[in-house]
Design brief:
single chain, about 575 residues, alpha/beta, Rossmann fold, six-stranded mixed β-sheet, 22 helices, elongated, binds adenosine-5'-triphosphate, ABC1_TM_dom, transmembrane, Type_1_exporter, ATP binding
Amino acid sequence: METFKKLKQFYWPFMKYFYLSVFSVLFVTVITVVYPIILQITIDDVVLGEQYNLIKYIAIVFIGLMILKGIANFYQQYLGDLFGIKSVFDLRNALYKKLQRLSFTYYDNARTGDLMSRLTMDVEGFRFFLSAGFKELIRVALLIIISLSVMFYYSVPLALVTMAVMPFLIVVVQRFDKKVHPAFRSIRKSLGSLNTRIQENVSGMNTVKSLSKEDFEIDRFSHNNINYRDENIKTSNIWARYFPLMELIGNLSMIALLVYGGYLVINGSLALGELVAFFSLVSYILGPLMHLGFIVNQFSQAKASGERLLEILEAKEDIIEETDPLNTDTIQGHITFKDVSLTYVAEDDAALSHISFDAPPGKVIGLIGPTGAGKTSITQLITRFYEPDQGVVYIDGKPTSSYELKKLRKHIGFVLQESFLFSTTIKENIAYGNPNASMEEIIQAAKRAQAHEFIMEMPKGYDTMLGERGMGLSGGQKQRIAIARAILIDPRILVLDDATSAVDMETEYQIQKALKEVMQDRTTFIIAHRISSLKHADEILVLDSGKIVERGTHEQLINQDGAYRRIYDIQYKDKDIVMESI
Ligand SMILES: Nc1ncnc2c1ncn2[C@@H]1O[C@H](COP(=O)(O)OP(=O)(O)OP(=O)(O)O)[C@@H](O)[C@H]1O
Protein backbone atom coordinates (compact mmCIF):
# COMPACT_ATOMS: atom_id res chain seq x y z
CA MET A 1 0.00 0.00 0.00
CA GLU A 2 3.04 2.23 0.61
CA THR A 3 3.53 2.55 -3.16
CA PHE A 4 -0.04 3.74 -3.69
CA LYS A 5 0.21 6.16 -0.79
CA LYS A 6 3.33 7.71 -2.29
CA LEU A 7 1.66 8.10 -5.68
CA LYS A 8 -1.48 9.57 -4.10
CA GLN A 9 -0.87 13.10 -5.39
CA PHE A 10 -1.54 11.88 -8.94
CA TYR A 11 -4.87 10.15 -8.44
CA TRP A 12 -6.26 12.03 -5.45
CA PRO A 13 -7.48 15.08 -7.44
CA PHE A 14 -9.61 12.78 -9.62
CA MET A 15 -11.20 10.77 -6.85
CA LYS A 16 -14.64 12.20 -7.69
CA TYR A 17 -14.67 10.07 -10.86
CA PHE A 18 -13.67 7.12 -8.78
CA TYR A 19 -16.40 7.67 -6.19
CA LEU A 20 -19.07 8.11 -8.86
CA SER A 21 -17.86 5.00 -10.62
CA VAL A 22 -17.93 3.07 -7.31
CA PHE A 23 -21.44 4.34 -6.70
CA SER A 24 -22.47 2.93 -10.09
CA VAL A 25 -20.72 -0.32 -9.19
CA LEU A 26 -22.75 -0.47 -5.99
CA PHE A 27 -25.91 -0.08 -8.04
CA VAL A 28 -24.88 -2.81 -10.48
CA THR A 29 -23.96 -5.15 -7.63
CA VAL A 30 -27.24 -4.69 -5.80
CA ILE A 31 -29.19 -5.43 -8.99
CA THR A 32 -27.01 -8.51 -9.60
CA VAL A 33 -27.92 -9.90 -6.17
CA VAL A 34 -31.59 -9.12 -6.76
CA TYR A 35 -31.64 -11.65 -9.68
CA PRO A 36 -31.49 -14.80 -7.49
CA ILE A 37 -34.04 -13.25 -5.13
CA ILE A 38 -36.44 -12.83 -8.07
CA LEU A 39 -35.66 -16.41 -9.07
CA GLN A 40 -36.48 -17.60 -5.56
CA ILE A 41 -39.81 -15.70 -5.55
CA THR A 42 -40.64 -17.06 -9.01
CA ILE A 43 -40.04 -20.67 -7.92
CA ASP A 44 -41.49 -20.57 -4.40
CA ASP A 45 -44.39 -18.13 -4.77
CA VAL A 46 -45.28 -18.08 -8.47
CA VAL A 47 -44.62 -21.65 -9.66
CA LEU A 48 -45.06 -23.69 -6.45
CA GLY A 49 -47.68 -21.22 -5.12
CA GLU A 50 -49.49 -21.40 -8.53
CA GLN A 51 -49.89 -17.61 -8.76
CA TYR A 52 -49.22 -17.54 -12.54
CA ASN A 53 -50.81 -14.07 -12.95
CA LEU A 54 -47.70 -12.59 -11.24
CA ILE A 55 -45.40 -13.72 -14.09
CA LYS A 56 -45.99 -10.60 -16.24
CA TYR A 57 -45.18 -8.29 -13.31
CA ILE A 58 -42.03 -10.18 -12.49
CA ALA A 59 -41.03 -10.01 -16.16
CA ILE A 60 -41.56 -6.22 -16.21
CA VAL A 61 -39.54 -5.75 -13.01
CA PHE A 62 -36.83 -7.95 -14.50
CA ILE A 63 -36.63 -5.93 -17.73
CA GLY A 64 -36.63 -2.65 -15.77
CA LEU A 65 -33.76 -3.87 -13.61
CA MET A 66 -31.79 -4.96 -16.66
CA ILE A 67 -32.12 -1.50 -18.24
CA LEU A 68 -31.01 0.16 -15.00
CA LYS A 69 -28.09 -2.23 -14.74
CA GLY A 70 -27.07 -1.41 -18.31
CA ILE A 71 -27.05 2.33 -17.59
CA ALA A 72 -25.14 1.91 -14.33
CA ASN A 73 -22.64 -0.36 -16.09
CA PHE A 74 -22.00 2.32 -18.69
CA TYR A 75 -21.20 4.88 -15.98
CA GLN A 76 -19.04 2.60 -13.88
CA GLN A 77 -16.97 1.73 -16.97
CA TYR A 78 -16.70 5.25 -18.37
CA LEU A 79 -16.00 7.04 -15.08
CA GLY A 80 -13.53 4.34 -14.05
CA ASP A 81 -11.60 4.81 -17.28
CA LEU A 82 -11.68 8.57 -16.88
CA PHE A 83 -10.20 8.22 -13.39
CA GLY A 84 -7.27 6.13 -14.67
CA ILE A 85 -6.62 8.17 -17.81
CA LYS A 86 -6.64 11.56 -16.03
CA SER A 87 -4.45 10.32 -13.18
CA VAL A 88 -1.69 8.92 -15.36
CA PHE A 89 -1.70 11.99 -17.59
CA ASP A 90 -0.28 13.97 -14.66
CA LEU A 91 1.95 11.08 -13.65
CA ARG A 92 3.48 10.84 -17.14
CA ASN A 93 4.12 14.59 -17.16
CA ALA A 94 5.73 14.45 -13.72
CA LEU A 95 8.00 11.59 -14.80
CA TYR A 96 9.10 13.42 -17.91
CA LYS A 97 9.75 16.61 -15.95
CA LYS A 98 11.80 14.64 -13.46
CA LEU A 99 13.83 13.10 -16.30
CA GLN A 100 14.69 16.62 -17.48
CA ARG A 101 15.87 17.57 -13.99
CA LEU A 102 17.93 14.48 -13.19
CA SER A 103 21.65 14.99 -13.36
CA PHE A 104 24.18 13.24 -15.58
CA THR A 105 25.15 11.03 -12.66
CA TYR A 106 21.70 9.44 -12.98
CA TYR A 107 21.95 8.99 -16.74
CA ASP A 108 25.44 7.49 -16.42
CA ASN A 109 23.81 4.49 -14.79
CA ALA A 110 20.43 4.51 -16.55
CA ARG A 111 19.53 2.46 -19.62
CA THR A 112 17.37 4.14 -22.25
CA GLY A 113 15.29 1.05 -23.07
CA ASP A 114 14.54 0.50 -19.42
CA LEU A 115 13.48 4.11 -18.94
CA MET A 116 11.31 3.84 -22.05
CA SER A 117 9.55 0.76 -20.72
CA ARG A 118 8.97 2.49 -17.37
CA LEU A 119 7.44 5.52 -19.03
CA THR A 120 5.20 3.44 -21.28
CA MET A 121 4.48 -0.09 -20.00
CA ASP A 122 4.65 0.68 -16.29
CA VAL A 123 2.54 3.80 -16.60
CA GLU A 124 -0.02 1.75 -18.57
CA GLY A 125 0.06 -1.03 -15.95
CA PHE A 126 -0.65 1.51 -13.27
CA ARG A 127 -3.43 3.12 -15.31
CA PHE A 128 -5.11 -0.22 -15.89
CA PHE A 129 -5.25 -0.88 -12.19
CA LEU A 130 -6.66 2.58 -11.42
CA SER A 131 -9.25 2.26 -14.20
CA ALA A 132 -10.35 -1.31 -13.62
CA GLY A 133 -8.49 -3.18 -10.90
CA PHE A 134 -9.21 -0.87 -7.99
CA LYS A 135 -12.90 -0.76 -8.83
CA GLU A 136 -12.99 -4.51 -9.37
CA LEU A 137 -11.60 -4.99 -5.87
CA ILE A 138 -14.49 -2.94 -4.48
CA ARG A 139 -17.03 -4.73 -6.71
CA VAL A 140 -15.84 -8.08 -5.42
CA ALA A 141 -15.96 -6.93 -1.80
CA LEU A 142 -19.49 -5.54 -2.28
CA LEU A 143 -20.72 -8.63 -4.09
CA ILE A 144 -19.40 -10.86 -1.33
CA ILE A 145 -20.87 -8.77 1.49
CA ILE A 146 -24.32 -8.39 -0.09
CA SER A 147 -24.52 -12.03 -1.25
CA LEU A 148 -23.44 -13.27 2.18
CA SER A 149 -26.08 -11.12 3.87
CA VAL A 150 -28.82 -12.58 1.67
CA MET A 151 -27.51 -16.11 2.26
CA PHE A 152 -27.55 -15.63 6.04
CA TYR A 153 -31.06 -14.22 5.73
CA TYR A 154 -32.22 -17.41 3.93
CA SER A 155 -30.44 -19.94 6.15
CA VAL A 156 -27.71 -19.37 8.72
CA PRO A 157 -26.52 -23.02 8.99
CA LEU A 158 -26.38 -23.48 5.20
CA ALA A 159 -24.49 -20.19 4.81
CA LEU A 160 -21.98 -21.31 7.44
CA VAL A 161 -21.47 -24.74 5.83
CA THR A 162 -20.93 -23.37 2.32
CA MET A 163 -18.60 -20.68 3.55
CA ALA A 164 -16.51 -23.08 5.68
CA VAL A 165 -13.93 -23.32 2.86
CA MET A 166 -13.51 -19.56 2.58
CA PRO A 167 -10.51 -19.30 4.98
CA PHE A 168 -8.65 -21.94 2.91
CA LEU A 169 -9.34 -19.99 -0.25
CA ILE A 170 -8.05 -16.80 1.35
CA VAL A 171 -4.83 -18.53 2.47
CA VAL A 172 -4.25 -19.86 -1.07
CA VAL A 173 -4.90 -16.44 -2.62
CA GLN A 174 -2.44 -14.85 -0.18
CA ARG A 175 0.26 -17.39 -1.02
CA PHE A 176 -0.41 -16.81 -4.69
CA ASP A 177 0.15 -13.08 -4.24
CA LYS A 178 3.43 -13.67 -2.40
CA LYS A 179 4.76 -15.71 -5.32
CA VAL A 180 3.28 -13.80 -8.20
CA HIS A 181 4.45 -10.33 -7.13
CA PRO A 182 8.22 -10.96 -7.43
CA ALA A 183 7.50 -12.87 -10.64
CA PHE A 184 5.89 -9.81 -12.15
CA ARG A 185 8.75 -7.60 -11.04
CA SER A 186 11.13 -9.95 -12.84
CA ILE A 187 9.01 -9.82 -15.99
CA ARG A 188 9.04 -6.04 -15.99
CA LYS A 189 12.81 -5.98 -15.39
CA SER A 190 13.39 -8.47 -18.16
CA LEU A 191 11.23 -6.43 -20.54
CA GLY A 192 13.30 -3.36 -19.64
CA SER A 193 16.50 -5.23 -20.63
CA LEU A 194 14.88 -6.43 -23.84
CA ASN A 195 13.91 -2.87 -24.75
CA THR A 196 17.40 -1.62 -23.95
CA ARG A 197 18.87 -4.25 -26.27
CA ILE A 198 16.55 -3.20 -29.13
CA GLN A 199 17.11 0.51 -28.56
CA GLU A 200 20.91 0.16 -28.42
CA ASN A 201 20.89 -2.05 -31.48
CA VAL A 202 18.90 0.44 -33.55
CA SER A 203 20.96 3.41 -32.31
CA GLY A 204 24.24 1.62 -32.93
CA MET A 205 23.27 -0.02 -36.24
CA ASN A 206 26.19 1.71 -37.99
CA THR A 207 28.69 0.10 -35.66
CA VAL A 208 26.92 -3.27 -35.75
CA LYS A 209 26.94 -3.43 -39.53
CA SER A 210 30.40 -2.02 -40.07
CA LEU A 211 31.87 -4.60 -37.70
CA SER A 212 29.61 -7.37 -39.14
CA LYS A 213 28.26 -8.09 -35.67
CA GLU A 214 24.72 -8.91 -36.82
CA ASP A 215 24.91 -12.55 -35.72
CA PHE A 216 26.46 -11.57 -32.41
CA GLU A 217 23.63 -9.08 -31.86
CA ILE A 218 21.02 -11.70 -32.79
CA ASP A 219 22.58 -14.03 -30.20
CA ARG A 220 22.57 -11.34 -27.54
CA PHE A 221 18.97 -10.45 -28.31
CA SER A 222 18.06 -14.11 -28.24
CA HIS A 223 19.58 -14.36 -24.77
CA ASN A 224 17.38 -11.51 -23.51
CA ASN A 225 14.40 -12.92 -25.33
CA ILE A 226 14.94 -16.33 -23.71
CA ASN A 227 15.13 -14.66 -20.32
CA TYR A 228 11.87 -12.79 -20.99
CA ARG A 229 10.20 -15.99 -22.19
CA ASP A 230 11.40 -17.94 -19.14
CA GLU A 231 10.19 -15.28 -16.74
CA ASN A 232 6.77 -15.40 -18.39
CA ILE A 233 6.70 -19.20 -18.25
CA LYS A 234 7.68 -19.09 -14.57
CA THR A 235 4.75 -16.78 -13.90
CA SER A 236 2.38 -18.94 -15.94
CA ASN A 237 3.52 -21.88 -13.84
CA ILE A 238 2.54 -20.09 -10.66
CA TRP A 239 -0.85 -19.34 -12.20
CA ALA A 240 -1.30 -22.89 -13.45
CA ARG A 241 -0.46 -24.35 -10.02
CA TYR A 242 -2.66 -22.07 -7.95
CA PHE A 243 -5.69 -21.64 -10.15
CA PRO A 244 -6.90 -25.29 -10.11
CA LEU A 245 -6.36 -25.32 -6.35
CA MET A 246 -8.61 -22.30 -5.97
CA GLU A 247 -11.19 -23.92 -8.23
CA LEU A 248 -11.08 -27.17 -6.28
CA ILE A 249 -11.79 -25.32 -3.03
CA GLY A 250 -14.68 -23.54 -4.75
CA ASN A 251 -16.13 -26.81 -6.01
CA LEU A 252 -15.92 -28.35 -2.52
CA SER A 253 -18.16 -25.55 -1.36
CA MET A 254 -20.67 -26.33 -4.14
CA ILE A 255 -20.71 -30.00 -3.10
CA ALA A 256 -21.33 -29.03 0.52
CA LEU A 257 -24.20 -26.82 -0.65
CA LEU A 258 -25.71 -29.61 -2.73
CA VAL A 259 -25.49 -32.23 0.04
CA TYR A 260 -26.51 -30.12 3.04
CA GLY A 261 -28.89 -27.84 1.10
CA GLY A 262 -30.61 -30.89 -0.47
CA TYR A 263 -31.01 -32.40 2.98
CA LEU A 264 -32.59 -29.16 4.34
CA VAL A 265 -35.05 -29.00 1.41
CA ILE A 266 -36.03 -32.67 1.92
CA ASN A 267 -36.69 -32.21 5.62
CA GLY A 268 -38.65 -29.03 4.85
CA SER A 269 -36.48 -26.42 6.62
CA LEU A 270 -35.49 -24.71 3.32
CA ALA A 271 -37.66 -23.79 0.34
CA LEU A 272 -36.66 -25.11 -3.10
CA GLY A 273 -36.43 -21.57 -4.51
CA GLU A 274 -34.10 -20.63 -1.67
CA LEU A 275 -31.74 -23.50 -2.52
CA VAL A 276 -31.68 -22.42 -6.18
CA ALA A 277 -31.00 -18.83 -5.11
CA PHE A 278 -28.23 -20.12 -2.86
CA PHE A 279 -26.46 -21.65 -5.85
CA SER A 280 -26.34 -18.29 -7.63
CA LEU A 281 -25.32 -16.47 -4.47
CA VAL A 282 -22.51 -18.93 -3.69
CA SER A 283 -21.21 -18.59 -7.24
CA TYR A 284 -21.29 -14.79 -6.78
CA ILE A 285 -18.96 -15.24 -3.82
CA LEU A 286 -16.71 -18.05 -5.03
CA GLY A 287 -16.36 -16.70 -8.57
CA PRO A 288 -14.99 -13.34 -7.40
CA LEU A 289 -12.91 -15.03 -4.71
CA MET A 290 -11.21 -17.14 -7.37
CA HIS A 291 -11.12 -14.11 -9.58
CA LEU A 292 -9.42 -12.44 -6.66
CA GLY A 293 -6.31 -14.21 -7.91
CA PHE A 294 -6.62 -12.26 -11.12
CA ILE A 295 -7.28 -8.98 -9.31
CA VAL A 296 -4.42 -9.62 -6.91
CA ASN A 297 -2.35 -10.30 -9.99
CA GLN A 298 -3.29 -6.92 -11.43
CA PHE A 299 -2.68 -5.32 -8.08
CA SER A 300 0.78 -6.93 -7.95
CA GLN A 301 1.56 -5.72 -11.46
CA ALA A 302 0.39 -2.22 -10.61
CA LYS A 303 2.41 -2.29 -7.38
CA ALA A 304 5.51 -3.46 -9.27
CA SER A 305 4.94 -0.76 -11.89
CA GLY A 306 4.31 1.86 -9.23
CA GLU A 307 7.57 0.93 -7.49
CA ARG A 308 9.50 1.31 -10.74
CA LEU A 309 7.88 4.67 -11.40
CA LEU A 310 8.65 5.84 -7.87
CA GLU A 311 12.28 4.89 -8.41
CA ILE A 312 12.36 7.62 -11.07
CA LEU A 313 10.23 10.13 -9.18
CA GLU A 314 12.27 9.71 -6.00
CA ALA A 315 15.70 9.53 -7.66
CA LYS A 316 18.08 11.89 -5.93
CA GLU A 317 18.67 15.17 -7.72
CA ASP A 318 22.27 15.79 -6.80
CA ILE A 319 22.68 19.13 -8.54
CA ILE A 320 20.58 21.37 -6.34
CA GLU A 321 20.01 25.08 -6.70
CA GLU A 322 20.43 27.39 -3.74
CA THR A 323 17.19 28.69 -2.27
CA ASP A 324 17.84 32.19 -3.58
CA PRO A 325 20.05 31.70 -6.66
CA LEU A 326 21.68 34.51 -8.62
CA ASN A 327 19.39 35.36 -11.50
CA THR A 328 21.80 36.91 -13.98
CA ASP A 329 20.81 37.74 -17.52
CA THR A 330 24.33 38.81 -18.40
CA ILE A 331 27.69 37.53 -17.26
CA GLN A 332 31.26 38.47 -18.14
CA GLY A 333 32.47 34.90 -18.59
CA HIS A 334 35.40 35.01 -16.16
CA ILE A 335 36.10 31.44 -15.08
CA THR A 336 38.33 30.44 -12.20
CA PHE A 337 39.08 26.94 -10.92
CA LYS A 338 40.48 26.84 -7.37
CA ASP A 339 41.98 23.52 -6.26
CA VAL A 340 39.20 21.49 -7.92
CA SER A 341 39.02 17.71 -7.67
CA LEU A 342 36.40 15.37 -9.12
CA THR A 343 35.77 11.64 -8.73
CA TYR A 344 32.86 10.19 -10.72
CA VAL A 345 32.60 6.78 -9.07
CA ALA A 346 33.70 6.35 -5.46
CA GLU A 347 36.02 3.38 -6.09
CA ASP A 348 37.58 4.88 -9.26
CA ASP A 349 40.65 7.13 -9.39
CA ALA A 350 40.02 10.88 -9.37
CA ALA A 351 39.17 12.23 -12.85
CA LEU A 352 40.55 15.63 -11.81
CA SER A 353 42.86 16.47 -8.93
CA HIS A 354 43.78 19.90 -7.60
CA ILE A 355 43.03 21.83 -10.79
CA SER A 356 43.54 25.60 -10.59
CA PHE A 357 43.52 28.11 -13.43
CA ASP A 358 42.09 31.45 -14.39
CA ALA A 359 40.30 32.24 -17.67
CA PRO A 360 39.55 35.99 -17.97
CA PRO A 361 36.61 37.06 -20.16
CA GLY A 362 37.19 36.66 -23.91
CA LYS A 363 40.34 34.57 -23.50
CA VAL A 364 40.91 31.22 -25.19
CA ILE A 365 42.03 28.26 -23.10
CA GLY A 366 43.33 25.14 -24.83
CA LEU A 367 43.05 21.75 -23.14
CA ILE A 368 45.25 18.97 -24.43
CA GLY A 369 46.42 15.60 -23.13
CA PRO A 370 45.96 11.87 -23.62
CA THR A 371 42.47 10.41 -23.69
CA GLY A 372 40.94 10.11 -20.26
CA ALA A 373 43.19 12.90 -18.95
CA GLY A 374 40.19 14.94 -17.72
CA LYS A 375 39.73 17.56 -20.46
CA THR A 376 35.99 17.07 -20.89
CA SER A 377 35.53 16.79 -17.12
CA ILE A 378 36.79 20.36 -16.70
CA THR A 379 34.08 21.69 -19.01
CA GLN A 380 31.40 19.53 -17.37
CA LEU A 381 32.15 21.27 -14.08
CA ILE A 382 31.70 24.75 -15.58
CA THR A 383 28.12 23.83 -16.60
CA ARG A 384 27.55 22.05 -13.28
CA PHE A 385 26.73 18.79 -15.03
CA TYR A 386 28.71 17.32 -12.14
CA GLU A 387 29.71 18.71 -8.77
CA PRO A 388 33.38 18.81 -7.64
CA ASP A 389 34.29 16.81 -4.54
CA GLN A 390 36.74 19.48 -3.52
CA GLY A 391 37.53 23.06 -4.50
CA VAL A 392 35.32 25.68 -6.16
CA VAL A 393 34.55 26.69 -9.73
CA TYR A 394 33.88 30.44 -9.98
CA ILE A 395 32.15 32.40 -12.72
CA ASP A 396 32.71 36.15 -12.44
CA GLY A 397 34.02 35.61 -8.92
CA LYS A 398 30.96 33.72 -7.66
CA PRO A 399 30.73 29.93 -7.21
CA THR A 400 28.78 28.20 -10.01
CA SER A 401 26.55 26.72 -7.31
CA SER A 402 25.20 30.18 -6.47
CA TYR A 403 23.72 30.70 -9.96
CA GLU A 404 20.30 29.69 -11.19
CA LEU A 405 21.09 26.54 -13.19
CA LYS A 406 19.08 27.38 -16.29
CA LYS A 407 20.53 30.87 -16.54
CA LEU A 408 24.05 29.60 -15.95
CA ARG A 409 23.78 26.99 -18.70
CA LYS A 410 22.21 29.46 -21.12
CA HIS A 411 25.49 31.39 -21.04
CA ILE A 412 27.51 28.35 -22.09
CA GLY A 413 27.51 27.03 -25.66
CA PHE A 414 28.80 23.60 -26.65
CA VAL A 415 30.08 22.28 -29.95
CA LEU A 416 30.89 18.63 -29.44
CA GLN A 417 32.72 16.03 -31.49
CA GLU A 418 29.33 14.64 -32.44
CA SER A 419 26.56 17.10 -31.75
CA PHE A 420 23.03 15.76 -31.43
CA LEU A 421 20.60 16.85 -34.10
CA PHE A 422 16.87 16.22 -33.62
CA SER A 423 14.64 14.62 -36.23
CA THR A 424 13.03 17.88 -37.25
CA THR A 425 13.83 20.67 -39.74
CA ILE A 426 17.27 22.26 -40.09
CA LYS A 427 15.69 25.55 -39.09
CA GLU A 428 14.38 24.16 -35.81
CA ASN A 429 17.67 22.42 -35.13
CA ILE A 430 19.58 25.68 -35.45
CA ALA A 431 17.04 27.51 -33.30
CA TYR A 432 16.87 24.76 -30.65
CA GLY A 433 18.58 26.84 -27.95
CA ASN A 434 16.79 30.03 -28.95
CA PRO A 435 13.34 29.17 -30.32
CA ASN A 436 12.32 32.82 -30.52
CA ALA A 437 15.00 33.61 -33.10
CA SER A 438 13.69 35.14 -36.32
CA MET A 439 14.33 33.55 -39.72
CA GLU A 440 16.85 36.33 -40.50
CA GLU A 441 18.77 35.57 -37.31
CA ILE A 442 18.80 31.85 -38.15
CA ILE A 443 20.13 32.53 -41.65
CA GLN A 444 22.70 34.97 -40.26
CA ALA A 445 23.92 32.36 -37.78
CA ALA A 446 24.09 29.72 -40.54
CA LYS A 447 26.09 32.08 -42.73
CA ARG A 448 28.58 32.77 -39.97
CA ALA A 449 28.86 29.02 -39.37
CA GLN A 450 29.61 28.44 -43.08
CA ALA A 451 26.43 26.36 -43.29
CA HIS A 452 24.16 28.58 -45.36
CA GLU A 453 25.48 27.42 -48.73
CA PHE A 454 25.01 23.72 -48.28
CA ILE A 455 21.62 24.26 -46.62
CA MET A 456 20.42 26.24 -49.67
CA GLU A 457 21.53 23.40 -51.93
CA MET A 458 19.07 21.07 -50.20
CA PRO A 459 15.66 20.66 -51.86
CA LYS A 460 13.73 22.32 -49.05
CA GLY A 461 16.50 24.54 -47.71
CA TYR A 462 15.98 25.43 -44.07
CA ASP A 463 12.79 23.36 -44.00
CA THR A 464 14.62 20.13 -44.86
CA MET A 465 13.73 17.43 -42.36
CA LEU A 466 16.63 15.63 -40.75
CA GLY A 467 16.46 11.94 -39.88
CA GLU A 468 17.07 10.70 -36.37
CA ARG A 469 20.55 11.78 -35.20
CA GLY A 470 20.75 14.10 -38.21
CA MET A 471 21.11 11.34 -40.80
CA GLY A 472 21.49 12.52 -44.31
CA LEU A 473 24.19 15.07 -43.42
CA SER A 474 27.95 14.59 -43.46
CA GLY A 475 29.96 14.93 -40.25
CA GLY A 476 31.20 18.37 -41.26
CA GLN A 477 27.72 19.56 -42.17
CA LYS A 478 26.27 18.37 -38.86
CA GLN A 479 29.09 20.15 -37.11
CA ARG A 480 28.40 23.44 -38.87
CA ILE A 481 24.71 23.22 -37.94
CA ALA A 482 25.82 22.72 -34.34
CA ILE A 483 28.05 25.79 -34.63
CA ALA A 484 25.16 27.84 -36.03
CA ARG A 485 23.12 26.66 -33.04
CA ALA A 486 25.85 27.87 -30.68
CA ILE A 487 26.08 31.24 -32.47
CA LEU A 488 22.34 31.74 -32.10
CA ILE A 489 22.47 31.13 -28.34
CA ASP A 490 25.09 33.89 -28.21
CA PRO A 491 26.80 32.41 -25.13
CA ARG A 492 29.49 34.21 -23.11
CA ILE A 493 31.35 30.95 -22.66
CA LEU A 494 32.04 28.51 -25.45
CA VAL A 495 33.25 24.92 -25.24
CA LEU A 496 34.61 23.29 -28.38
CA ASP A 497 35.12 19.64 -27.48
CA ASP A 498 37.09 17.89 -30.22
CA ALA A 499 34.92 19.87 -32.62
CA THR A 500 37.07 19.21 -35.68
CA SER A 501 38.43 15.75 -35.03
CA ALA A 502 35.84 13.87 -37.09
CA VAL A 503 36.31 15.73 -40.37
CA ASP A 504 38.76 15.92 -43.27
CA MET A 505 41.29 18.75 -43.78
CA GLU A 506 39.12 20.74 -46.17
CA THR A 507 36.10 20.58 -43.86
CA GLU A 508 38.31 21.28 -40.87
CA TYR A 509 39.46 24.44 -42.58
CA GLN A 510 35.85 25.54 -43.11
CA ILE A 511 34.86 24.65 -39.57
CA GLN A 512 37.88 26.49 -38.18
CA LYS A 513 36.76 29.53 -40.14
CA ALA A 514 33.28 29.20 -38.67
CA LEU A 515 34.65 28.70 -35.19
CA LYS A 516 36.84 31.79 -35.39
CA GLU A 517 33.68 33.71 -36.08
CA VAL A 518 31.80 32.23 -33.14
CA MET A 519 34.73 32.56 -30.69
CA GLN A 520 34.96 36.33 -30.99
CA ASP A 521 34.64 38.03 -27.58
CA ARG A 522 33.74 34.81 -25.81
CA THR A 523 35.69 32.92 -23.18
CA THR A 524 36.48 29.75 -25.11
CA PHE A 525 37.69 26.32 -24.10
CA ILE A 526 39.14 24.29 -26.93
CA ILE A 527 39.58 20.61 -26.23
CA ALA A 528 41.72 19.03 -28.90
CA HIS A 529 44.12 16.26 -29.67
CA ARG A 530 45.66 18.19 -32.57
CA ILE A 531 47.99 21.02 -31.68
CA SER A 532 46.84 22.86 -34.81
CA SER A 533 43.39 23.31 -33.26
CA LEU A 534 44.58 25.14 -30.16
CA LYS A 535 47.99 26.62 -30.78
CA HIS A 536 46.56 30.16 -30.88
CA ALA A 537 45.02 29.82 -27.40
CA ASP A 538 45.96 32.42 -24.79
CA GLU A 539 46.82 29.64 -22.38
CA ILE A 540 47.21 25.93 -22.97
CA LEU A 541 46.72 23.47 -20.10
CA VAL A 542 48.38 20.11 -20.62
CA LEU A 543 46.60 17.44 -18.64
CA ASP A 544 47.60 13.94 -17.67
CA SER A 545 45.72 11.60 -15.33
CA GLY A 546 43.54 14.40 -14.03
CA LYS A 547 46.41 16.80 -13.23
CA ILE A 548 47.75 19.87 -15.00
CA VAL A 549 51.30 18.85 -15.88
CA GLU A 550 52.21 21.93 -17.93
CA ARG A 551 50.74 25.31 -18.78
CA GLY A 552 51.62 28.25 -20.97
CA THR A 553 51.32 29.56 -24.51
CA HIS A 554 52.21 27.43 -27.54
CA GLU A 555 55.59 29.15 -27.85
CA GLN A 556 56.42 28.71 -24.18
CA LEU A 557 55.42 25.07 -24.20
CA ILE A 558 57.36 23.99 -27.28
CA ASN A 559 60.44 25.50 -25.75
CA GLN A 560 60.09 23.24 -22.73
CA ASP A 561 61.11 19.64 -22.92
CA GLY A 562 57.80 18.34 -21.62
CA ALA A 563 54.63 16.50 -22.61
CA TYR A 564 53.47 19.26 -24.98
CA ARG A 565 56.78 19.24 -26.80
CA ARG A 566 56.54 15.47 -27.24
CA ILE A 567 53.02 15.79 -28.71
CA TYR A 568 54.31 18.54 -30.97
CA ASP A 569 57.22 16.40 -32.13
CA ILE A 570 54.93 13.50 -32.96
CA GLN A 571 52.46 15.71 -34.81
CA TYR A 572 54.93 17.92 -36.68
CA LYS A 573 58.68 17.35 -36.60
CA ASP A 574 58.79 13.59 -36.30
CA LYS A 575 55.62 13.06 -38.26
CA ASP A 576 57.38 11.58 -41.27
CA ILE A 577 59.52 9.26 -39.19
CA VAL A 578 56.52 8.09 -37.23
CA MET A 579 54.51 7.57 -40.40
CA GLU A 580 57.33 5.53 -41.92
CA SER A 581 57.71 3.35 -38.87
CA ILE A 582 54.01 2.40 -38.86
N1 LIG B 1 30.33 9.98 -16.47
C1 LIG B 1 31.44 9.36 -16.05
N2 LIG B 1 31.36 8.40 -15.11
C2 LIG B 1 32.47 7.78 -14.67
N3 LIG B 1 33.71 8.06 -15.10
C3 LIG B 1 33.85 9.01 -16.03
C4 LIG B 1 32.72 9.72 -16.55
N4 LIG B 1 33.15 10.61 -17.46
C5 LIG B 1 34.50 10.48 -17.51
N5 LIG B 1 34.92 9.54 -16.66
C6 LIG B 1 36.31 9.12 -16.40
O1 LIG B 1 37.02 10.28 -15.99
C7 LIG B 1 38.29 10.34 -16.60
C8 LIG B 1 38.43 11.64 -17.39
O2 LIG B 1 37.51 11.61 -18.47
P1 LIG B 1 37.35 12.82 -19.52
O3 LIG B 1 36.22 12.48 -20.41
O4 LIG B 1 37.32 14.09 -18.79
O5 LIG B 1 38.71 12.70 -20.33
P2 LIG B 1 39.15 13.42 -21.65
O6 LIG B 1 40.52 13.93 -21.39
O7 LIG B 1 38.14 14.40 -22.09
O8 LIG B 1 39.21 12.18 -22.65
P3 LIG B 1 38.98 12.16 -24.24
O9 LIG B 1 40.13 12.86 -24.86
O10 LIG B 1 39.01 10.71 -24.55
O11 LIG B 1 37.66 12.79 -24.51
C9 LIG B 1 38.40 9.09 -17.46
O12 LIG B 1 39.11 8.14 -16.72
C10 LIG B 1 36.99 8.66 -17.66
O13 LIG B 1 36.91 7.26 -17.77
